[in-house]
Amino acid sequence: MVGGAPTILTLNLTVLSRKNNMNNAIRPYQVPVGNENSLFTLVENRTAYTYDSCELNVFETHQQAKDVKLVFNDFVFTSMLRGKKVMHLENKEAFDYLPGESVIVGPNEVMEIDFPEAKKGQPTQCIALAISQQLIDFTLDMLNEKHPKVIEQDQWKIDPSIHHIINNQELINTVDRIIKISRTEDSSTKDLYVDLAMKEMIIRLMQTQARHVFTSSPKTLASHHPLAYAIHIIQNKINEKIDFDRLANAACMSRATFFKKFKEAFGFTPGQYVLSERIKLAKKWLKKPNCSISEACYNSGFENLSHFTSTFKKEEGVSPSGYKKNYQGNGSFLN
């Protein structure tokens, strides 16, 4: 059984067995909030599901509170479900913590938390996954042995400096499985299901961190990392035709190896990354008042207007014309 049960420094708990990001926030499975009359406390009431390698905690707060202290013995992955917190972590500036975001916290690191908006009928809710070091080490050793990094001296590891994360669907899908297994599964293999999902979640977390590092500063890394060099080329030529064979050659790999290592490192293929960058660029063009749908299409590297329209709608849930119309109506609420 994982030794990650939290120590709450300022309250008692009960245990059982971004601004623009908000509209498109990718948040975990929505756990129903508790009936206030059945809770032991209205501040960080806790429901826990304990397994051999981890512990899932669901916290909810139903009234404003300040300086609530919380610490776990193990590494913790947290993700917001609803409401707002203000997080104070050791040696870091305070920050707002909102649905669609996750935060990782090291073993025995004290979290000081404010709940400025929590109230009756509008609680703040968050999950915290305490993960045993043994499971983390096992997963890292497996990856380093069977899926080594592109640069030989690099190792798979969780980067504690990248602690405040914007969720992506792949990461949150693994969290969803753990929550749903905890709430609905009632079999002797429950621990095994959670263990498998936790290993994938650890991998998805590292891929999410790698996305942040490599896509935010590829130029800095390009001189000594082949995948960063490839991303740098993609970003500079995103409105042009991308030749993946040339891209693989630039990274000094065969096409097959390049695709394999890119997917391992970031959780998406080069083609998926190119598409996401083109959609991102198209959204910028669509926000320009005098830019037509056709101009947004071709300026973003798409070669076919029909393909652009169908792809944009698939990825964003709205057509390019609908996105443009919505932005002109309330642009501050769109990414």
UniProtKB/TrEMBL annotation:
SUPFAM superfamilies: Homeodomain-like. Coiled coil: none annotated. The keyword Isomerase does not apply. Residues 228-326 form the HTH araC/xylS-type domain. Gene3D superfamilies: Homeodomain-like (1.10.10.60). It comes from the Bacteria. The keyword Nucleus does not apply. This is Transcriptional regulator, AraC family. It holds the Pfam family HTH_18.
